[in-house]
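Team,

Forwarding the record for the chain on the shared tracking sheet. I've put the sequence and predicted structure together so nobody has to dig through attachments.
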Amino acid sequence: MENKNGKDPGAAREAGPSACDACGNKECSAASRRSNENDQEFAERRRLESRLCRIRRKIVVLSGKGGVGKSTVAVNIAAALHAVGRRVGLLDVDIHGPSVPTMLGLEGMTLDSGPDGLLPADAGGIAVMSLGFLLPHPDEAVIWRGPLKMGAIKQFLMDVAWGDLDWLVIDSPPGTGDEPLSVCQLIPGITGAVIVTTPQKVAAVDVRKSITFCRRLGIPVLGVVENMSGFACPKCGEVTPIFSRGGGRGIAESMNVPFLGSIPIDPAIAASGDDGRPYVRTFADSPTAAVMRGIIAPLQALEAEAK
């Protein structure tokens, strides 16, 4: 089946098994039932793990506060990874404010089903899933409590035909509540987290909470990104500080985690997001795009270490 873009995002992916019997690994965590599982729980876990075992690495993009540009960073990380030849998926688990469809020009997309499950939308080769695709109207408010949120996230992981991916980028809502906790509990062995902040102290202080959250759950912190770090003049390119500066770098250094770079306020970033075009693709030759590509350097280093 084709989606609205006229492409079949599942065409290049082999159909995967509905359970882990084909794996052949007797030590696989899905090979045997846990002592506290009933038949349904066992079947669901096997189906979930059969999806996840085909995704080599999973990263979660977090922020301590809302409004720091976390979704913009997640979208451009996915686009930068795809640009260097990686097979990439992007999962938007911001239940109450799914903005990824807008940023990728996928508003109004209706998803199709294939023999192995729901087919993700295609954004120039990036497989995308978001609750925004399933809402009857874009103005519809999602009024859910924790169990419903976890159930939806489980379905995104278990019932979507992600296929074989090198990276799954997960755009999580701000804070350390139900959605990020559900993702981290459902996905064993998350590769790491990228934490986004802005320079002001009021935002950067919450980075500590996100780092603590990751450490308590055993998730490596790949680094901190400081977004909106000064204003980049669209004419001369000079960056002028608007807010206080260096908050993200300072917190990263004090918490002993990597600092991945400072992204300035660039009017073209907002325009590209509104137009549904990843900035790192549309303005690939700009200095800001170079900063965004630098964010994936530690991710590429992980790939090199695994060889």
